């Protein structure tokens, strides 16, 4: 399975280096930063020192401006949260979710980690298929970003069967960027047919996001759904006097 670790707005260079080290130890090397605090964070001295020999992971890592860019090609997205949310994807421990995920077949999986200062925004969590909560002491639940990445990387490696697992088959599900693009297309069409009030959208689009996350549509199905949205828009325009 293809695996990517995404850090959203990381604010400490040392954590980026420590994240690279955590990934290399567990055999992963796809690290993407979304709007890091420092433009040159991947080359800063503190980053390189904390990477402690994982310079190849830093060399391959990249910084992007949007979460859409970071999730390009990914088909299953996991948020990391400190507490369960009242709304959004189901919350589970890493071991509860990752074992069945690995056993279910080929996926391109992304793990999202929020800013050290603010955590993950609700709108980013809503895009995910699952929210992972690492069990911690109720008396002290503050987990460093790099430590959280190490725990998730370890649990995912173990779920994949350690370092002796056979390579997976090619994935079939559409990637997260394709689903996001389709949802934007549907949002526009739903406004045009009068089903969605942009002034009071409530949680319609996040609920549709969760529906399609569960459905895991293929690229062909995404094409069909975009065709439906296009037809709705065209019908609405023709109906206007």
UniProtKB/TrEMBL annotation:
<dbReference type="InterPro" id="IPR001537">
    <property type="entry name" value="SpoU_MeTrfase"/>
</dbReference>
<feature type="domain" description="tRNA/rRNA methyltransferase SpoU type">
    <location>
        <begin position="4"/>
        <end position="154"/>
    </location>
</feature>
<keyword id="KW-0808">Transferase</keyword>
<comment type="subunit">
    <text>Homodimer.</text>
</comment>
<dbReference type="GO" id="GO:0003723">
    <property type="term" value="F:RNA binding"/>
</dbReference>
<dbReference type="GO" id="GO:0160206">
    <property type="term" value="F:tRNA (cytidine(32)/uridine(32)-2'-O)-methyltransferase activity"/>
</dbReference>
<keyword id="KW-0963">Cytoplasm</keyword>
<dbReference type="InterPro" id="IPR004384">
    <property type="entry name" value="RNA_MeTrfase_TrmJ/LasT"/>
</dbReference>
<keyword id="KW-0489">Methyltransferase</keyword>
<keyword id="KW-0949">S-adenosyl-L-methionine</keyword>
<dbReference type="InterPro" id="IPR029026">
    <property type="entry name" value="tRNA_m1G_MTases_N"/>
</dbReference>
<dbReference type="GO" id="GO:0005829">
    <property type="term" value="C:cytosol"/>
</dbReference>
<comment type="similarity">
    <text>Belongs to the class IV-like SAM-binding methyltransferase superfamily. RNA methyltransferase TrmH family.</text>
</comment>
<dbReference type="Pfam" id="PF00588">
    <property type="entry name" value="SpoU_methylase"/>
</dbReference>
<comment type="function">
    <text>Catalyzes the formation of 2'O-methylated cytidine (Cm32) or 2'O-methylated uridine (Um32) at position 32 in tRNA.</text>
</comment>
<dbReference type="GO" id="GO:0002128">
    <property type="term" value="P:tRNA nucleoside ribose methylation"/>
</dbReference>
<protein>
    <recommendedName>
        <fullName>tRNA (cytidine/uridine-2'-O-)-methyltransferase TrmJ</fullName>
        <ecNumber>2.1.1.200</ecNumber>
    </recommendedName>
</protein>
<dbReference type="InterPro" id="IPR029028">
    <property type="entry name" value="Alpha/beta_knot_MTases"/>
</dbReference>
<keyword id="KW-0819">tRNA processing</keyword>
